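Run log, item B.
One chain of 482 residues. Sequence copied directly from the ordering sheet:
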Amino acid sequence: MVMDGHVKNGPHAFDLAMGGGSHSGSKLFDDDGRLKRTGTEWTASAHIITAVIGSGVLSLAWATAQLGWIAGPTVMLLFSFVTYYTSSLLADCYRSGDPLTGKRNYTYMDAVAANLGGIQVKLCGLLQYFNLFGVAIGYTIAASISMTAIKRSNCFHEHADSKCHISANPYMIIFGVAQLFLSQIPDFDQIWWLSYVAAVMSFTYSSIGLGLGIAKVAENGKFKGTLTGISIGTVSQTDKIWRTFQALGDIAFAYSYSMILIEIQDTIKSPPAENKTMKKATLISVITTTIFYMACGAFGYAAFGDSSPGNLLTGFGFYNPFWLVDIANIAIAIHLVGAYQVYCQPLFAFVEKFAREKFPESDFITKEIKIPIPGFKPYNLNLFRLVWRTCFVLLTTIISMLLPFFNDVVGFLGALGFWPLTVYYPVEMYIAQKKIPKWGTKWVCLQILSVACLIISIAAAVGSIAGVVVDLESYKPFKTTY
């Protein structure tokens, strides 16, 4: 898009800078006139793994404890299958018509608009961007928990004082300050390095959590836990039901990434067709994450049984070697710095595109100011981007300080986003695109899958809301300690 003599970021800030006019025959430009996309199945996998193996992995031992040895792993496998299947359907929606030459849908909302249209587009946008906003809050809370765990562990080993209660607020502020700077990276294609670092960090802390779980099981000399999970008596029958529902939400959150899949796919080069590359990347990512999830959930539950903590690493907080737990918590914090950006870039792009279209003559919104950086390309400073993204980070940080309920926030976000964004829209778009006849066998099977996932999402939302209500009974704003 060219405005006021300046080349602007494209309407979707998840790709390389746009060129003007048609360059479909050029080696430098793609068929839509944008600079050649350079993403591969490995960069796409890095983005997905950064998004998927987030703080959700740490709650899986707790979730397994609520469900037990039979239902826990079974539910995780079912979620992984559903996520891969619906992500494959969604990958086919990146282009309308021919998979190699059809019109590109740059964002999730564009895909919904092309295939479903009408009110569905607004509903999808509302759900997607509210969920992305919520994830930013959840990741701020999770990062602060890991940073406070380091401080508390070191305090305990230095003073042997069990009253080492640390306020999470300063660490949320530190995380927020880091995001203030990183949020000024204009587009998704420019944070590929952050995704690689974050993906390495996710494997680091997941591996440490798994290793510590195995060591703890060896120390115990047995596998803790039961076939049906935490027993009634340890908790009331009502709590058992709420916790089971919340566990479903935690697992759903651990697998929710479809809301940014189209945006990731828009970074992939072609040929081959982007949907083929994306399906490979999704398969690699889902298999990798499921192995880690199953291992962390299983060995965490085996190590702690019914007393499995909401955040797995906090269960090892006072165990030696405590420095290894500290490394894992540092890795989590670094990973979440990158994951925050991967999730927020679609929201940033949407608001900035809307502002440009609404006020095309405003220099405040459209003008790019080149800031020279010695040894690097000049940085394009946009005043609207600076102000709006700064306000966004400040808002998510303040809300995190007000509502620091990690498990319940994670469960609620998982419940809210899983069915509509991971199942309903991919299924409905696939039906519309492939013109699958109503009441045919395939149509009925897809609708059964969608309804089943809807029921699970409702149950998970109810469980998480019940957990928030309990948390609020002892809640004091800005005074949360760990």
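Observations after the first pass:
- Residues 1-25 have pLDDT under 50 and may be disordered.
- The chain has one domain: 43-473.
Flagged for discussion on Thursday.
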